[in-house]
Amino acid sequence: MTTTLWPLWRAGEQPLAVLVAQYGASRVQSMLLVVTGIARLDGAAQQEALAELRQGLISHMTTVALSMMEGWARSAGDDVRATGDLARRVLQAILSFTTDGDDPEQVRALFAHLRADAVAHS
What pTM did the predictor assign? Predict the structure, then answer.
């Protein structure tokens, strides 16, 4: 049973679930670059690190997970519950880059970077 209160998008727009998935994909990719240190590199060093990352298992698994999230989003349609579930999973994915033992200042810095990057690309 789908829970539809009203269309979650307007004509000509992407469905809300798709936008949530796109946001999640961009933030997870950004977090991956921050936690691996690639975001701090410049020029050739950054390109070399990106090439190495793309060849590894982490990149492969991230690509698979993000494509599954996109598929879930496309099948959600106007289903409010499915869209909400997807949004919660996106936030859980972002939070998975932190643990309870992390230095709160480093976590704040990580999320400040994430926010600034999201604003810059919106």
Answer: 0.72
